[in-house]
Design a protein that fits this description.
Blueprint lengths: L3 H10 L6 H13 L5 E3 H8 L6 H13 L3 E6 L2 E6 L1 H14 L10 E7 L5 H12 L4 E2 L4 E4 L4 H10 L9 E7 H4 L2 H11 L2 H24 L6 H21 L13 H27 L29
Antiparallel strand pairs: 1-3, 2-3, 4-6, 4-7, 5-6
């Protein structure tokens, strides 16, 4: 009989098109970084094979990530380790603060604005819009981007990492208190204009619908899941959740609709992750390798993720 875990894995394997590069980024951030931020390419291929990613697809995706300066390579004899570049490491650290946080950040009631003050060509403007969209910024017209809590220095660093350094002199970062922009009602109107919260809420609801049965399965069976399946589901869980957070400006509760599904998704991800952590780490202990044949231990920091929840999350 097919279980929710098997259903989710089969569902992914049957996708006509997989964004393998994005999935590999998720694997690096979640599983490779705690073990030293590097992995032998052959080991990565073997870990992702059970998800239906063949060797050629993984190799091509890794080479593309290296070309885009996410990853670097180090040959060790006839094998090669792939590791995060400094800019890739910074991107992962920024993302991790959001993915593994126990709650959304408190709002200081100041809006972060990035205003275009110089001329931009059509292609540059679209690249800028896309890059800021992936950081959670909303757009107010063509020349103003807004976020409630982003670190503007980090946002500009991310634009440099995306190859948009030449655009920075034509951008002006600003901080604006909500009183400067108007009343609470105007804040709500700005949120409505800048973000499609209805669409985001639907995406969160889909996430909950996809993973709630898996969590219920683990609750009912007292965590009985084989090590490989635990690793594969953990990978898809964090991959799907990361992609959601990239679209989420993490608005304060005061600016969100009642019963916002993002909080339910966060709590679900948190509990499911900690239930999958021990068996998935056993799988990595058995199959994670560097080019020299060693298997590095996971850093203690891994076990601090979602630490505030309950005793289920303990070092192995």
């Amino acid at each position: 009989m097919s279980t929710p875990i098997h259903k989710r894995l089969d569902e992914f394997r049957q996708l006509d098109r997989v964004q393998a590069g994005s999935l590999i980024i998720s694997v690096f951030g979640d599983a490779v970084v705690p073990r030293g931020s590097r992995i032998w390419l052959g080991s990565l291929i073997r870990l992702l094979g059970p998800l239906g990613l063949n060797e050629r697809l993984v190799r091509t995706s890794v080479f593309r990530l290296a070309k885009d300066e996410w990853l670097g390579s180090e040959p060790v004899g006839r094998r090669t380790d792939y590791l995060l570049t400094p800019s890739g490491q910074q991107r992962f650290e920024d993302a991790s603060r959001h993915i593994y946080a126990s709650s959304t950040p408190q709002w200081d009631r100041r809006w972060r604005l990035i205003v275009v003050v110089g001329e931009l060509g059509g292609r540059e403007r679209e690249r800028l819009r896309q890059a800021l969209f992936w950081q959670g910024f909303g757009a107010l017209g063509a020349d103003c981007f807004v976020h409630p809590s982003a670190e503007l220095i980090a946002a500009f660093d991310a634009l440099v990492a995306e190859g948009l350094a030449d655009v920075l002199p034509r951008l002006k970062p600003l901080l604006a208190a909500d009183a400067t922009l108007g009343t609470a009602a105007s804040d709500a109107e700005m949120v409505r204009r800048a973000w499609n919260l209805e669409r985001l809420a639907g995406m969160y609801a889909d996430f909950v619908g996809r993973y709630q049965p898996i969590l219920q399965q683990l609750r009912d069976s007292a965590g009985d899941v084989d090590d490989e399946s635990a690793f594969l589901v953990r990978t898809l869980l964090i991959h799907d959740y990361r992609r959601l957070l990239l679209r989420d400006p993490e608005l304060p509760d005061a600016l969100l609709p009642a019963e916002w599904p993002g909080q339910k998704a966060r709590l679900l991800c948190r509990e499911l992750y900690r239930r999958l952590l021990a068996p998935s780490e056993r799988h990595l202990d058995a199959h994670f390798q560097l080019a020299d044949g060693r298997t590095p231990e996971a850093a203690p920091l891994l076990f601090e993720r979602f630490r505030d929840v309950d005793p289920l999350l303990q070092p192995l």
